[in-house]
Amino acid sequence: MTAQVSRAFLIAALFTTAFSAHAAPCVEPPPDPTNTYDAQHTYDKLVRNYPFIRIASVDLPDGVTKVADQTYVQYGTRCLKLDMYLPATAQAGKAVPVVVFVHGGGWRSGFRSEFVPMAVRLAQRGYAAVTISYRLSGEATYPAAIHDTRAAVRWVREHANQYHLDPQRIVLAGGSAGGQIASLAGVTGHLNQFDPGAANSAVPSSVQAIVNIDGLSDFTSPAARVNEDDPKKNPSAAGMWFGGRYAEKSALWKEASPIQYVRPGMPPILFIDSAQPRFAVGRDDMVARMTDVGAVGRIVLLPDSPHSFWLFDPWVQPTVDATVAFLNEQFQSR
């Protein structure tokens, strides 16, 4: 580890100590036995139809440094944490772009460890990666997860110098519900209504690009509501997040749809999607609208793939390759 990184880690430790001295102590919520959206449980569901899949490795490769359990925002005694995966170039003192990952799980389950396979492979390609935890719908309904995601972006930007991150090249990415959260937090970077922390900080929580992996773009479309507003589900995943069905909370369902915020100058978006079309509802219409206003929207489809493909080989590497190619293109054009 270089002297620069050692100093950075020391600064972070001092910051954490000072933060803890002035804030209420963190109290971890008890484990939720119903939260089973992880690689092993998903593998058990998929392996019969995809016998060739393998759970992607989460091992830390040579040249990649992990900085774990950093508190990025605190509400009372509730602390939300993130992990960072730093490439060798950052450790050598070069400012690198950073991808902030938002995990999936239907807004009510999941763990930040979901994106470790992608994070370490991105770090091997010269990108820093951050995986975040956020408040799930059983703890706090919409828009809490958006607030948390924007807070995580601000924390990354505030700590950019310490960890040699480029504050002008921050990306939000996520899968499934996390893809929708990342998209919404990213396309509303100009709107403080989705960022309560903006009132007390001069540091923006906007991002320069978005990667939406199999996440919805339009909750209001009939195709989305077939699944997300299914009356047989009491409640559905989306209904639980919004605190009501579409008929009861239609304004929120519309407000939470990234497609509503297409505008000139918005961040470019890469959509990476499975062969399961229900999870990409609204994507094509959103890309068409983006094209009309001069924004960049790209689509990469992985044939014969299940939802949650980013947890498994052989799909992790193509997903990383597509992400790196897209981001390199966007950042080199600036």
Describe the structure.
The chain has 334 residues and is of the alpha/beta class. It has a single domain, classed as Rossmann fold. Helix content is 35%, strand content 19%. It contains 12 helices and 10 strands. It has helices spanning 3-22, 39-46, 88-91, 116-124, 144-158, 160-163, 177-187, 222-228, 237-242, 250-255, 283-292, 316-332, and strands at residues 54-55, 65-75, 78-86, 96-102, 128-132, 165-175, 209-213, 269-273, 297-301, 312-313. The strands form 2 sheets. It has an 8-stranded mixed beta sheet with strand order 2-3-5-4-6-7-8-9, sandwiched between helices. Strands 1-10 form a two-stranded antiparallel sheet. Helix 4 packs across helix 12 (316-332) and helix 5 (144-158) packs across helix 7. The radius of gyration is 19 Å and the shape is globular. Mean pLDDT is 92; it is low at 1-21. Residues 1-23 form the signal peptide. Keywords: Hydrolase, Signal. One of its GO terms (molecular function) is hydrolase activity.
Concise account of the structure shown:
The protein has 334 residues and is of the alpha/beta class.
Number of helical segments with 4 or more residues: 12
| Helix and strand pattern | HHEEEHEHEHHEHEHHHEHEEH
Poorly predicted runs of 5 or more residues? 1-21
- For this structure, the CATH topology is Rossmann fold
Q: Strand fraction band?
A: 15-25%
Overall outline: globular
CATH class: Alpha Beta
CATH architecture term? 3-Layer(aba) Sandwich
| Overall tally of structural domains | 1
- Biggest sheet architecture: 8 strands, mixed
Number of strands: 10
Radius of gyration: 19 Å
Distance between the termini: 32 Å
Could you state the CATH homologous superfamily?
Alpha/Beta hydrolase fold, catalytic domain
Structural class, by secondary structure, is alpha/beta
Whole-number mean pLDDT: 92
Q: What percent of the residues sit in helical stretches (DSSP H or I)?
A: 25-40%
How are the strands of the biggest sheet laid out side by side? Answer: 2-3-5-4-6-7-8-9
Keywords: Hydrolase, Signal
Protein name: Alpha/beta hydrolase
GO molecular function: hydrolase activity
Organism: Massilia horti
